[in-house]
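seq as requested:
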Amino acid sequence: MYDEDIKKQLREFVDVLYNKNYFGFKESAYRYVSSLIDNINNTIAFRKKKPAPRYFSKHGENLYYAAFKKNNNTMWYVFFNHENDIYYIRYIGNNHNISQYL
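struct tokens:
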């Protein structure tokens, strides 16, 4: 399950990737984000999870995080709560904007 703010962030991320010329076609940016979501949905249960540093408590209490490598330059970090086999995604960031806090 994704927090509503995360759903919005992921939708906006397609535009950011395209507008900043990370992808030449909007469809390519959409596929990248869709691939990230699929990767999270299909593998989060099998990923090594670590307790999130205190810095991330603004996104929720008792958070864990897992890493998802998309390419040689970008590692995504997914912050979540886990209860009764349900993963509630609270925040998603990457090594370009949050690695200094991990």
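The longest strand covers residues 75-83.
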